[in-house]
Design goal:
The protein contains 9 helices and 11 strands. The chain is α/β, with parallel strands linked by helices. The chain has a single domain, classed as Rossmann fold (3-Layer(aba) Sandwich), CATH 3.40.50. Helix 4 links the parallel strand 3 and strand 4. Helix 1 runs parallel beside helix 2. Pathway: Secondary metabolite biosynthesis.
Length: 241
């Protein structure tokens, strides 16, 4: 019997920098989640590359990445992804959604996403776990963990059978779960501070954020660290537990 098999549904185009330094975002996720004896594959869904129906059954779990696109958009690949996620849900496949992945999962299951009223949240954010997290998780976690965030959209309304697992000062739904097989995380447990600062510069170049905000982010990030090991443990435990 072979080891477990996982697929990353890549929703972002890799920048040259991330490709060179980390072998793309797929490499970033593999570095965080992969363990010996497992097989990890990637489907570039953003480019229209999707698993065939008979391939779906060969995987134990799926990870949906972040994206520059809006989860409330109706691009062809996004509509195709929504259908795939509903299929994975009905097959009770483990699905971990990160940032855009968290939002698109919510939408696929009947929730609502959109622009955050509070605007961009970029930097290292403190996430507070809800009471239901303590009942749900077998991993001992502190009451709060810090995570890298980079988003301006959010989950506005949970799907019917979902519950909130965590919140922050800026975002009411930082994490949610649906049954025992689906979990969404608004933050980026997989990011290093280096990736975040690279993204800040890209957003600045494209005029998505102002100089003053970029400087503020860089100052705030200096001297603080996200709880990457704790998040890694939490994500692995969910995906493989």
């Amino acid at each position: 019997m072979g080891g477990k098999r996982f697929a990353v549904l890549l929703c972002a185009e890799d920048s040259e920098y991330v490709t060179k330094m980390y072998k793309g975002y797929f490499g970033v996720f593999v570095r965080m989640l992969a363990e010996e004896g497992e097989t990890w594959s990637v489907y570039r869904v953003v480019s229209g590359e999707f698993p065939e129906d008979d391939e779906i059954d060969t995987f134990d779990g799926f990870v949906i990445t972040g994206s520059c696109n809006d989860a409330h958009g109706n691009d062809v690949w996004i509509c195709k992804l929504l259908n795939l996620l509903r299929k994975l849900d009905s097959n009770k496949k483990k699905i971990l959604g990160i940032c855009f992945g968290h939002q698109i999962l919510c939408r696929a299951l009947g929730g609502k996403t959109g622009r955050a009223i509070s605007g961009w949240d970029i930097g290292i954010t403190t996430i507070n776990f809800s009471a239901s997290w303590k009942l749900y998780s077998s991993v001992k976690t502190p009451a709060a963990l810090s995570v890298i965030e980079c988003h301006r959209d959010e989950v506005k309304e949970l799907p019917p059978r979902a519950e909130v697992l965590a919140w922050s000062d800026k975002t009411g739904i930082e994490m949610f779960r649906c049954g025992d097989h689906i979990m969404g995380i608004q933050g980026h447990p997989e990011y290093t501070k280096d990736i975040l600062l690279h993204l800040v510069n890209r957003l600045l170049q494209r005029n998505f954020i102002a100089d003053s905000y970029a400087e503020e982010i860089k100052a705030n990030v200096e001297g603080t660290e996200p709880d990457r090991e704790a998040w890694k443990k939490l994500c692995i435990n969910f995906l493989k537990g």
